[in-house]
Automatic annotation (TrEMBL):
Keyword field contains Signal: no
Family in the record: Belongs to the short-chain dehydrogenases/reductases (SDR) family.
Ketoreductase domain ranges (all copies): 5-178
GO molecular function terms listed in the Swiss-Prot or TrEMBL record: oxidoreductase activity
Xref: Pfam families: adh_short_C2
Organism: Cryobacterium arcticum
Tree of life domain: Bacteria
Phylogenetic placement of the source organism: Bacteria, Bacillati, Actinomycetota, Actinomycetes, Micrococcales
Protein name (record): 3-oxoacyl-ACP reductase
SMART domains on file: PKS_KR
UniProt keywords, alphabetically: Oxidoreductase
Length: 236
C-alpha cells in the first residue's frame, strides 16, 4: 500500500478531474477538490474556489490544511475553452483562457509550494492536452495555455527538484467526457481515424497515469510530459 497523502485536484467536479479524484480516493488518499460549482466524488472534500483569484485559492488551501493537513499532491486540472478561429478571437477570448488554464495553474502551484518546501516533499501534476504541442485550429488560446504548462513544470523542476518535489505534465488526447459526447458522430469518427488506438480514452485511463506519476514509484521523474492520447501526438 502506498503512503496515504493529502491530495488536491482543482476542477474536480466533473470529467477528468472527477475521475482523478475518484482514483486517488480508491487508492486510500485524503482528497479535496476545488470547484466553482458542483461536488466532487463521494469521499472527497469539496471546497469552493476560483483559480483566477489568488485570495480564493489561498482560502481553499487553508480550509483543506485545517481538515487534512498540508497538501502533498496537487493536480492542476481546472480549465476552460473558448474556441474560435484566430481572426474572430477577441482579446478577452484569449486572455480569459490563459488566466484560468495557465495563470490559474501558477496560482495553485505557488500556494501549494509553501507546504511542500516545508515538508521537503511534493508532487505537482499539471493537466495539459495533446493540442498543447500538437496544435489545433480554432484553439490558439487553449493550445497556448496548455503548452505553457510545460515551461511551468520544467522551471519548477529546476527550482524545487532538490527539495523532494517533482512537477510533471500529463497530456490527454480525446477522452470520453460530456464534452466529446456532444460532438456529431461524423466528427467523432473523423477524430478516431487520426488516433492510432482507434478510440477515445476513458477518464479512468488518464486518472491512473496521474496517480502513478504522483506516487512513490515515480519519485525520480520530473519535468516530463506524459501523453495519454492513444498515439495521436507522437513526439509533439
Amino acid at each position: 500500500m502506498a503512503t496515504a497523502r493529502t491530495v488536491l485536484v482543482t476542477g474536480g467536479n466533473r470529467g477528468i478531474g472527477y475521475a482523478i479524484a475518484e482514483e486517488f480516493i480508491a487508492q486510500g488518499h485524503r482528497v479535496a477538490i476545488t470547484a466553482r460549482s458542483g461536488e466532487g466524488p463521494a469521499g472527497s472534500l469539496t471546497v469552493r474556489a476560483d483559480v483566477t483569484d489568488y485570495a480564493s485559492i489561498d482560502a481553499a488551501f487553508t480550509e483543506i490544511e485545517a481538515a487534512y493537513g498540508p497538501v502533498e499532491i496537487v493536480v492542476a486540472n481546472a480549465g476552460i475553452t473558448k474556441d474560435t478561429l484566430l481572426m474572430r478571437m477577441s482579446e478577452e477570448d484569449f486572455t480569459s483562457v490563459i488566466d484560468t488554464n495557465l495563470s490559474g495553474a501558477f496560482r495553485v502551484v505557488k500556494r501549494a509550494s509553501k507546504g511542500m518546501l516545508k515538508a521537503r516533499f511534493g508532487r505537482i501534476v499539471l493537466i495539459s492536452s495533446v493540442v498543447g504541442l500538437y496544435g489545433s485550429a480554432g484553439q490558439v488560446n487553449y493550445s497556448s495555455s496548455k503548452s505553457g504548462l510545460v515551461g511551468l513544470a520544467r522551471s519548477v523542476t529546476r527550482e524545487l527538484g532538490a527539495r523532494g518535489i517533482t512537477a510533471n505534465v500529463v497530456a490527454p488526447g480525446f477522452i470520453e467526457t460530456d464534452m466529446t459526447a456532444q460532438l456529431p458522430d461524423a466528427q467523432q469518427a473523423e477524430y478516431k481515424r487520426n488516433i492510432p488506438a482507434g478510440r477515445f480514452a476513458s477518464p479512468a485511463e488518464v486518472a491512473r497515469v496521474v496517480t502513478w506519476i504522483a506516487g512513490d514509484d515515480a519519485s525520480y521523474i520530473s519535468g516530463a510530459v506524459i501523453p495519454v492520447d492513444g498515439g495521436l501526438g507522437m513526439g509533439h
